[in-house]
Design a protein that fits this description.
Chain A: It comes from Croceibacterium xixiisoli. Chain A: Keywords: DNA-binding, Phosphoprotein. Chain A: GO terms for molecular function: phosphorelay response regulator activity; transcription cis-regulatory region binding. The structure holds two protein chains of two kinds. Chain A is α/β, with parallel strands linked by helices. Chain A contains eight helices and 13 strands. In chain B, helix 1 packs across helix 25 and helix 22 runs parallel beside helix 25. Among the domains of chain B are: 211 residues, Rossmann fold (3-Layer(aba) Sandwich), CATH 3.40.50.300; 135 residues, HUPs (Rossmann fold, 3-Layer(aba) Sandwich); 100 residues; 162 residues, Histidine kinase-like ATPase, C-terminal domain (Heat Shock Protein 90, 2-Layer Sandwich), CATH 3.30.565. Chain B is of the alpha/beta class. The chains are: A alpha/beta, B alpha/beta. Chains A and B meet through helix 1, helix 6, helix 8 and strand 11 of A and helix 1, helix 25, strand 19, helix 27 and helix 28 of B.
């Protein structure tokens, strides 16, 4: 069996490492482990993993400090897996360069889904995709058009801006800050309500059930993600 | 769980530090040589003694022995050496410090530029990194290195420094001004105690001029004032710094003994409030006011008391006349507004005098003078000012007689050669000498004696007091006139000299007082010193009472006083509560043997001082009141500063405790969740391999434990008061979506009915706390709803609020217990199904909801039967529709 990708697990708990290892191996990933920050940096060089699952509570160094170091050394997709659930911590991890954040205890299936999404994004990182499909919605980034089914959806420039920003990294959580600075670059006071209302307006146009959004999904206190987004072409 | 790999106390402290950035304290000086480094080292030593982990990152001792000695007690992180263009440059070793992870690091010279090749070009950037790593930093800086002040400093010193530190660094820092008087600094410079690099000596000699140093000092104090919190700011503005920097305006009210002086004072207070300026009530202490009777004095004292009570500063200015006093005082404090009274009656008795306002305006300056009409000056009309009509010693009359006799003798001897008029001139001599030396009475006495002798011995017919020639009447009138005028002038000069002397004494007294009380080290000592000094200056018995929970508490007295009678205590309490003098000689509780004055700082009474004499007479003279007031103001300021320092220390301790608690919570959460993650993960893993319904049980129990831990941690946060709200606009759809997703297991078997219109306004909540509220409500519904029934989430507008409800179909809440259901550890029984829960969930809902300004409600409903839990968002938690333009 050939590994579809190599995953580096950084966690000081042997049981968690074992659990992650079985889960990942079952899904045909290759696994390397590191029990502390120092070992993690070593494995990063000698095993060159495609994905890093990073726990923040390491014995020798705070995991947050490790994020920029990993980013500097490697292009691996970086998922934070932590028991700490403060939203500002999540935002900090994402701002420092993590691709996603999973809270312990996690659902194995959800974790695998996140890894898949993150990897797919990594593959498409180089050549930006021209179009993204999410559910029955297609976002054409070249012609700046959004279609629901076969029907053209009319979006205002701000609405399209938000959709396009999310579509650049389908499946990945984009922080409020990232969305705000992309779409409202001159709003220094960070009026999140602009973003909230624009998201709500977009949902009215593209979601099937507006009160149960399935395409533009909220990530509590952190940001939004475009769910079920598949790059098409 | 591997115990060996979890580091304990250290890890905790590290987490604690990560919870917040380190704190920065900056020792700010006006110029090199004021002793910042020394101050920093001794503060650091104190922290070390208190148990803090203190190291020296970098300190420039410049070879000063005292400073060197202070560094010796500290652990010093060796500097890193860097070769640059053939020279060895040493810099602070950041890596070593970060690896060492002390609690506090001392870093001298915040404005320093690092050697090329260092981690950061500037030392303040190093400091920022240390702070971000959770390490506290003490540092030093001179005022001219602060970026925004660089230009200003360069403009008057003509020395521009290139190394500047951005203001933002200082904004979040605690600032301590290290301050010594310019003269002392210049002295230190002369003694070679100030380190100056060789090449800068010439430029710096100019820099160290007294005027420059004074200006730098003022800048430093202002900058420090900017940094302290609003309370301290108010404080400094009111008391510490004179001059008009606060708002640019400064109001001065001229206070006299006139009956309606309080109107002027209130007008001044109103104007000062409107202009957001500081204000002063000034009484010009002229020779005339020395002649006040007791009523005048009392009215004046009342007026000055009122000013003090309204937050004004009270000043007494000695001067020969009102105009001169006001003009010089307003100039000195750069007043912009002057308020004075004008009586319509004033003109009749001295029509040649121009109104005071005119004269002051004439004196120039950008002073606006406001003249308010006053009622009748004084009920008895004004008295004409007479120079001190003092009797003088009896010997004065003897000397006067002797002089007159001598002149008479020489007149008789010279009568042959001189004519009559010239002999008369001779008599001017004793008159002038007597009146200038001994005062008006002696002068007039000399005049009368001279005229009698002249008349009797020289004027024809001699040997009698009859005057034959009316011309000679003129001579006598002139003699008396000269006596009067001369005594006037010389008395005036003498009075002025006396005034100048007394004002110098007052200034010296104030300076000495401030020095004495500032030198005290603790509150007891301070209180005792205040009592002792006031006693020394006013020759009264003194006692100080400080506010305590059971009323004023006697804390110090000179001579010692054990306890007060009820009437004294009542007077002291009155003075404290009403912020007014009380007791003997005041308007209230005059039966008391003591007179009590409040000590106010920033408008708040911090203590009262009691004054009494041994014989029960009036303890303080009204002309001493301004001096007493200003001494009490200083005392209050020092006392309050001391109390504030204590308070700040307490707050710092509390913060440390909070930090530790937060660290513990965070660590507990990690330690409990990690094994749970393993259990849940392995259960899911096993499901693929084994078919056993006990796995379902295992998983649901583990999930329950997880929910329980989350609630326990949340509750601990509520109880510890460490919830920090981050309110932001949240879309209910988003919040409900996340909560439904996270409770999907607890709600398995129930349909979720959503009735939340997407057009409802956004709500202002803390996303995470709100999430926990919703999760607990949904979890609760999942537990108590009948199986298979739908759970409904509905939002509706009500008048004045938005209501979000979660409705289940089930047994509902037992009647009458709707109110207590939100209490901790209440679980509703009365159902045969086993209800799993800790009783914490709903208590958390209530606590979090209230923390965010929402209301939690519980009620039963019929049709279908069940419970309804609601969160009410008041209008101020609803976000207004944003500007459409921003959305297009």
């Amino acid at each position: 069996m050939t590994d579809i990708a190599r995953v580096l697990i950084v966690d000081d708990e042997p049981h968690i490492r074992r659990l992650l290892r079985t889960t990942l191996e079952r899904a045909s990933y290759g696994v390397v482990e590191a029990e502390n920050a120092r070992a993690a940096m070593d494995r990063l060089t000698d095993a060159s993993p495609d994905v890093v699952l990073l726990d923040l509570g390491l014995p020798d160094r705070d995991g947050l400090e490790l994020i920029p170091l990993i980013r500097k050394q490697s292009t691996a997709t970086l998922l934070v897996v932590s028991a700490r659930e403060a939203t500002d911590l999540k935002v900090a991890a994402l701002d420092l360069g993590a691709d996603d954040y999973v809270t312990k205890p996690f659902d194995s299936e959800e974790l695998l889904a996140r890894v898949r999404t993150a990897l797919r994004h990594r593959i498409h990182q180089q050549g930006a995709q021209s179009s993204v499909v999410a559910g029955d919605v297609e976002i054409d980034l070249v012609n700046r058009r959004v279609l629901k089914g076969e029907v053209d959806v009319h979006l205002t420039p701000k609405e399209y801006g938000v959709v396009a920003e999310l579509a650049k990294f389908p499946g990945r959580v984009i922080t409020h800050q990232q969305l705000m600075s992309a779409v409202w670059p001159h709003d220094y006071e960070r009026h999140i309500e602009y973003l909230r209302v624009v998201i709500r307006n977009i949902r009215q146009k593209i979601e099937t059930d507006v009160s149960r959004p399935a395409i533009l999904v909220n990530e509590l206190g952190v940001g939004y993600r475009l769910l079920g987004g598949d790059p098409a072409g | 769980m591997a115990d060996d790999s979890r580091p304990d106390p250290d890890a905790l402290l590290r987490i604690a530090a990560q919870e917040g950035r380190g704190r920065l304290k900056v020792f700010l000086g006006a110029a090199p040589g004021v002793g910042k480094t020394w101050e920093m080292l001794s503060d650091g030593a104190e922290r070390r003694k208190a148990g803090a982990d203190v190291v020296v990152g970098v300190v420039e001792t410049h070879g000063r022995a005292e400073t060197e000695a202070l560094t010796r007690g500290h652990e010093i992180i060796p500097r890193r050496s860097e070769a640059y263009q053939g020279r060895q440059l040493t810099e602070m070793d950041m890596d070593a410090i970060l690896a060492r992870r002390p609690g506090l690091v001392l870093v001298d010279e915040l404005a320093h530029s690092n050697a090329p090749g260092s981690r950061h070009p500037k030392r303040y950037q190093d400091v920022e990194e240390l702070l971000a790593a959770g390490i506290d930093v003490y540092s030093t800086i001179n005022i001219q290195h602060i970026e925004s002040l660089n230009d200003i400093v360069a403009s008057f010193t003509h020395v521009r420094v290139r190394e500047t530190v951005p203001d933002r660094i200082l904004e979040s820092a605690e600032i301590e001004v290290v301050d010594i008087p310019p003269d002392e600094l210049i002295e230190r410079l002369k003694q070679g105690k100030v380190y100056i690099p060789q090449e800068a000596t010439r430029a710096l000699n100019h820099f160290f001029s007294k005027s420059n140093l004074s200006a730098l000092r003022e800048l430093a104090l202002r900058r420090a004032a900017q940094a302290v919190d609003s309370q301290m700011l108010e404080h400094v503005r009111q008391h510490a710094l004179s001059g008009s920097w606060a708002s640019g305006d400064r109001v001065v009210v001229a206070v006299s003994e006139a009956p309606d002086a309080d109107r002027l004072i209130r007008a001044g207070k109103r104007m000062a409030d409107a202009l957001r300026a500081s204000w002063t009530a000034v009484h010009v202490d002229t020779p005339r006011s020395r002649a006040f009777d007791e009523d005048d004095r009392k009215r004046l004292a009342n007026a000055l008391n009122l000013a003090n009570q309204l937050g004004g500063t009270v000043v007494s200015v000695p001067a020969a006349d009102v105009v001169e006093g006001l003009a010089s005082y307003t100039r000195e404090v750069r007043a912009t507004q002057l308020i004075l009274g004008h009586s319509a009656h004033a003109a009749w008795y001295a029509p040649w005098r121009r109104p005071v306002a005119d004269q002051i305006l004439q004196a120039g300056g950008d002073l606006a003078v406001h003249v308010l009409p006053t009622k009748a000056q004084s009920t008895r009309g004004r008295r004409l000012y007479l120079p001190s009509w003092r009797a003088g010693p009896t010997s004065a009359y003897g000397w006067t007689l002797l002089m007159v006799a001598a002149v008479t003798g020489s007149g008789l001897a010279l009568f042959q050669v001189l004519d009559l008029a010239n002999v008369g001139l001779l008599y001017l001599l004793p008159v002038m000498v007597a009146s200038s030396l001994f005062g008006l009475r002696a002068g007039l006495f000399a005049g009368v004696a001279s005229s009698l002798a002249y008349n009797f011995l020289f004027l024809p017919p001699t040997g009698s007091l009859t005057i034959a020639n009316p011309e000679n009447v003129v001579s006598i009138v002139v003699l008396l006139g000269v006596a009067f005028v001369t005594s006037q002038f010389s008395a005036r000069i003498r009075d002025q000299a006396e005034l100048a002397g007394s004002s110098a004494r007052e200034n010296a007294a104030q300076a000495g007082f401030l020095r004495q009380i500032s030198a005290t080290g603790n509150e007891e000592e301070l209180l005792q010193t205040i009592c002792g000094e006031i006693r020394r200056m006013f020759a009264v018995r003194t006692a100080l009472l400080v506010a305590a929970s059971g009323g004023p508490q006697l804390r110090a007295a000179v001579p010692p006083e054990n306890r007060f009678d009820t009437i004294e205590l009542a007077a002291a309490q009155w003075a404290m509560e009403k912020n007014q003098p009380a007791g003997l000689g005041s308007d209230t509780l005059t039966a008391s043997d003591w007179l009590f004055y409040p000590l106010r700082a920033a408008g708040k009474v911090v203590a009262v001082i009691g004054l009494a004499t041994e014989d029960g007479s009036q303890p303080i003279r009204s002309d001493d009141i301004p001096l007493l007031m200003s001494l009490l103001d200083q005392a209050a300021l020092v006392l309050e500063r001391m109390q504030l320092e204590d308070e700040l220390r307490d707050i710092a301790q509390l913060k440390d405790r909070d930090r530790l608690r937060a660290a513990l919570l965070s660590s507990v959460s990690h330690d409990l969740r990690t094994p749970l993650t393993a259990i849940l993960g392995i259960t899911q893993e096993l499901r693929g391999a084994v078919q056993d319904d006990r796995l379902d049980m295992l998983e649901s129990e583990a999930q329950r434990l997880n929910r329980f831990i989350a609630n326990l941690l949340d509750m601990a946060r509520v109880e510890a008061g460490v919830i920090r709200l981050k309110l932001e606009p949240v879309d209910l759809t988003d919040a409900i979506g996340s909560a439904v997703h996270d409770t999907r297991r607890a709600l398995a078997g129930h349909d979720i009915e959503l009735d939340v219109s997407p057009s409802l306004p956004l709500v202002m909540v803390d996303a995470q706390l709100f999430h926990h509220c919703l999760i607990n409500l949904l979890d609760n519904a999942g537990r108590y709803a009948d199986p298979g029934t739908p759970v409904r989430i509905a939002a509706e507008r009500r008048p004045g609020a938005l209501c979000l409800s979660i409705l289940d179909q089930g047994p509902g809440i037992p009647a009458g217990r709707e109110g207590e259901i939100f209490e901790t550890f209440i679980r509703i029984e009365g159902s045969d199904r086993s209800k799993t829960g800790t009783g914490l969930g709903l208590a958390i809902v209530k606590a979090f909801a209230e923390a965010m300004g929402l209301t939690a409600e519980a009620a039963n409903r019929d049709e279908p039967r069940g419970a309804r839990f609601s969160l009410l968002f008041p209008d101020n938690r609803l976000v207004r529709e944003p500007d459409q333009e921003q959305l297009l």
